[in-house]
C-alpha cells in the first residue's frame, strides 16, 4: 500500500483499522483537533507504522471476536514500541488477549447507550465527570485484565476502561468517537494532548504551504493536466497545483451534453475568471449525445459516457502535449475515504454502479499522478478551499455525478429530454437555494421518468412526462436519508415545474432512503 504523504506536521496519530464502521470517524475526530491522523490496515508492518512517525497509536474496533479463526491481528510488537496506545472496543480485546488477560463472549451483549462509572483516576479520563453516557457496540468483553492493567471505568455489567500507565497503554470498551458518547471528544483530547503530547498544528495554512511546496519539487519543469468538473474536489486540487506551477497546469473541462442548465458557461466563468485557472473547455456534447441515442440500459449509458470522456480527454492531452512539449502529470481530486476504502481490511464491496471519475484514464497515457487531497476528508477540502479564498458557491456545490443528467433521465437520453430535465432541475436548485436549504442538503435534484400521464391545463387535456424530486441528507454518499422538504417548498417547485417546463405535467416526490434506494436513479 502506498503511504499517505506526510504533511510535515510534527507528528501523526496512527489508527490501525480492525474493520470497524467507525474507523474513519476516529480519524476525523482527531483531525478536528488539528492533529494529523492516518488510518492503516491492522496488518500494516511495523516499518510502515514507523514511517508514519506516530506520536501515538489507536487500535480501532472491529466486527470480529478475538477468538474467531480469521480474527484480524496486528503485529503485537506495536504494544512495546514505547508509543502510547489507545485501544477501542476490539482494540481493548486485542490488547487484553495479547498481554496475557482473558476475553470472553459477553453473556449480555451491549449495544447502544450505557452508563459509565469512573472507578479510579486516570490521565485518559481527566476532567470527565464520574458518571457519563457512552455508546457501546460489542459482543465480547474483558474477563480478566492482563498483568499490569487496572480497571479505570465500568458499566453495570462490563469492563469499560483499563490502563497500564507504566507501559502507556489505555483501552476503552465503548466508542469515544461517536457523538452518542457524551464527552468522547474530551477523552480523545486527553489521549492526544496529555498522553501523546502532540501539537495541534494540522491547519489549512500549514497544509497549503506544505502541499504547494511539495508539488513544486515533484513537478519541477514538467507540465500537468487536470480534468475539471467544476465540483469542489477537482477545483480545490487544481487551485493547489495552480499555486505551485501556474500555467504549466492546463485544466480540461468537457461538455458531455448532460450538464445542467448553463453549466458549461458558468463553470468556465468560475474557473477562468474567479479562480484564474488555465482552462481548455471542450464542447463535445453532440458527440456524446450521438453515442447515447437509442440506449436505455443504465450501465451501458454509464459506460458510453465514461469511454467517450476518456477519448475526448486523451485527444486534448495529446494536443496540449504538442503545444507544451510534453504532459507528464495528471492531477486528480482523490479524497482520503477513497484511499482508505481501497486499503481497508474489509473486502471490496460489490459494484452497484460503475462510478467513473478520471480514475479510469488509460494507462497508455503514462501520466504520473498528483493527488493533493488524498489525505483529506470532504469537510477538510472545503476548509482548504476557504484558506485558498475560493468562492463559497464553488466550495458548497452539491455533488454532481460524472455521467451527469444521463443517470437522471430514465430510459433514452435525447436532446429534448435533456432540455426538459435541465429546466426542471434549474427550478429545483433555485427554489432550494431561495429557501436557504441548498447547503444543508447533500443533494437535491429532479429526475425525468419514462412515464407519461394524463393531465389538464387550461381546459386542455395533456399527456406529458413525469418528473420526480429527490432530496437527501448524507454524510458521505454511502448511505442517505430522504429529506422531508417543507411543504411550501415542494408546492412551489411542483407548481413552477408544471407551469414553466413544457413537457412535464406531473411532479412526484421520492421518499426512499439509501439503502434500499441509491441516490441517483440509475
Ligand atoms: P449512488 O447513486 O450510488 O450515488 O447512491 C452516491 C453518490 O455518488 C454520486 N455518483 C457519482 N459520482 N461519478 C461520480 O463522480 C459517478 O459515476 C457517480 N454516480 C453516482 C451520486 O451523485 C451520489 O452523490
Quick synopsis:
With 522 residues, the chain is an alpha/beta fold. It is 33% helix and 24% strand. The protein is built from 14 helices and 18 strands.
Task: Write up this protein.
With 522 residues, the chain is of the alpha/beta class. It has three domains: 12-195, Class I glutamine amidotransferase (GATase) domain (Rossmann fold, 3-Layer(aba) Sandwich); 204-395, HUPs (Rossmann fold, 3-Layer(aba) Sandwich), CATH 3.40.50.620; 412-509, GMP Synthetase, Chain A, domain 3 (2-Layer Sandwich), CATH 3.30.300. 33% of the residues lie in helices and 24% in strands. It has 14 helices and 18 strands. It has helices spanning 23-32, 46-51, 90-98, 184-195, 204-219, 232-245, 263-274, 285-292, 298-324, 336-343, 378-387, 392-395, 415-434, 487-500; strands at 12-17, 36-41, 54-59, 85-88, 102-118, 131-144, 150-154, 159-164, 169-172, 224-227, 249-255, 279-283, 329-331, 368-370, 443-457, 460-473, 481-482, 504-509. The strands form three sheets. The protein has a nine-stranded mixed beta sheet, with helices on both faces. It has a five-stranded parallel beta sheet with strand order 12-11-10-13-14, sandwiched between helices. The two termini are 33 Å apart. Bound molecules: xanthosine-5'-monophosphate. Xanthosine-5'-monophosphate (XMP) binds at residues 353, 355-357, 399, 401-403, 443, 477, 514, 518-520. Xanthosine-5'-monophosphate (XMP) is lined by residues 353, 355-357, 399, 401-403, 443, 477, 514, 518-520.
Amino acid at each position: 500500500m502506498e503511504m499517505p504523504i506526510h504533511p510535515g506536521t510534527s507528528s501523526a496519530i496512527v489508527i490501525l483499522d480492525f474493520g470497524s464502521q467507525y474507523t474513519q470517524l476516529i480519524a476525523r475526530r482527531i483531525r478536528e483537533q488539528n492533529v494529523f491522523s492516518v488510518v492503516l490496515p491492522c496488518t500494516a508492518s511495523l516499518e510502515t507504522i514507523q514511517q508514519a512517525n506516530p506520536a501515538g497509536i489507536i487500535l480501532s474496533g472491529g466486527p470480529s471476536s478475538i477468538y474467531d479463526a480469521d480474527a484480524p491481528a496486528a503485529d503485537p510488537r506495536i504494544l512495546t514500541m514505547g508509543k502510547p496506545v489507545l485501544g477501542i472496543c476490539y482494540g481493548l480485546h486485542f490488547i487484553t488477549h495479547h498481554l496475557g488477560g482473558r476475553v470472553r463472549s459477553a453473556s449480555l451483549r451491549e449495544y447502544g447507550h450505557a452508563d459509565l462509572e469512573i472507578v479510579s483516576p486516570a490521565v485518559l479520563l481527566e476532567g470527565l465527570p464520574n458518571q457519563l453516557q457512552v455508546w457501546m457496540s460489542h459482543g465480547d468483553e474483558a474477563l480478566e485484565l492482563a498483568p499490569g492493567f487496572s480497571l479505570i471505568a465500568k458499566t453495570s455489567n462490563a469492563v469499560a476502561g483499563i490502563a497500564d500507565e507504566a507501559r502507556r497503554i489505555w483501552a476503552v470498551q465503548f466508542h469515544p468517537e461517536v457523538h452518542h458518547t457524551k464527552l468522547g471528544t474530551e477523552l480523545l483530547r486527553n489521549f492526544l494532548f496529555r498522553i501523546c503530547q502532540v501539537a495541534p498544528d494540522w491547519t489549512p495554512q500549514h497544509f497549503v504551504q506544505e502541499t504547494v511546496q511539495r508539488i513544486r519539487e515533484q513537478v519541477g519543469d514538467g507540465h500537468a493536466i487536470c480534468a475539471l468538473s467544476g465540483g469542489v474536489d477537482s477545483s480545490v486540487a487544481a487551485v493547489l497545483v495552480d499555486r505551485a506551477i501556474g500555467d504549466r497546469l492546463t485544466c480540461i473541462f468537457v461538455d458531455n451534453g448532460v450538464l445542467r442548465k448553463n453549466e458549461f458557461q458558468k463553470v468556465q466563468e468560475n474557473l477562468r475568471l474567479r479562480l484564474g485557472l488555465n482552462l481548455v473547455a471542450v464542447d463535445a456534447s453532440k458527440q456524446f449525445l450521438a453515442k447515447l441515442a437509442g440506449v436505455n440500459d443504465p450501465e451501458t449509458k454509464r459506460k458510453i459516457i465514461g469511454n467517450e470522456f476518456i477519448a475526448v480527454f486523451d485527444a486534448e492531452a495529446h494536443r496540449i502535449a504538442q503545444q507544451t512539449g510534453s504532459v507528464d502529470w495528471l492531477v486528480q481530486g482523490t479524497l482520503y475515504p477513497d484511499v482508505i476504502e481501497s486499503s481497508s481490511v474489509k473486502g471490496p464491496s460489490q459494484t452497484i454502479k460503475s462510478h467513473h471519475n478520471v480514475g479510469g484514464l488509460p494507462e497508455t497515457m503514462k501520466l504520473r499522478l498528483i493527488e493533493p487531497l488524498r489525505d483529506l476528508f470532504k469537510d477538510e477540502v472545503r476548509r482548504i478551499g476557504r484558506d485558498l479564498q475560493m468562492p463559497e458557491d464553488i466550495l458548497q456545490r452539491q455533488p454532481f455525478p460524472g455521467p451527469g443528467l444521463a443517470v437522471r433521465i430514465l430510459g433514452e437520453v435525447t436532446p429534448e429530454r435533456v432540455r426538459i430535465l435541465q429546466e426542471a432541475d434549474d427550478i429545483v436548485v433555485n427554489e432550494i437555494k431561495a429557501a436557504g436549504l441548498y447547503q444543508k442538503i447533500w443533494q437535491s435534484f429532479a429526475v425525468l421518468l419514462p412515464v407519461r400521464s394524463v393531465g389538464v391545463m387550461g381546459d386542455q387535456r395533456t399527456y406529458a412526462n413525469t418528473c420526480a424530486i429527490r432530496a437527501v441528507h448524507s454524510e458521505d454518499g454511502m448511505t442517505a436519508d430522504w429529506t422531508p422538504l417543507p411543504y411550501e417548498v415542494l408546492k412551489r417547485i411542483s407548481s413552477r415545474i408544471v407551469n414553466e417546463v413544457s413537457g412535464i405535467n406531473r411532479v412526484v416526490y421520492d421518499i426512499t432512503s439509501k439503502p434500499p434506494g441509491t441516490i441517483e436513479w440509475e
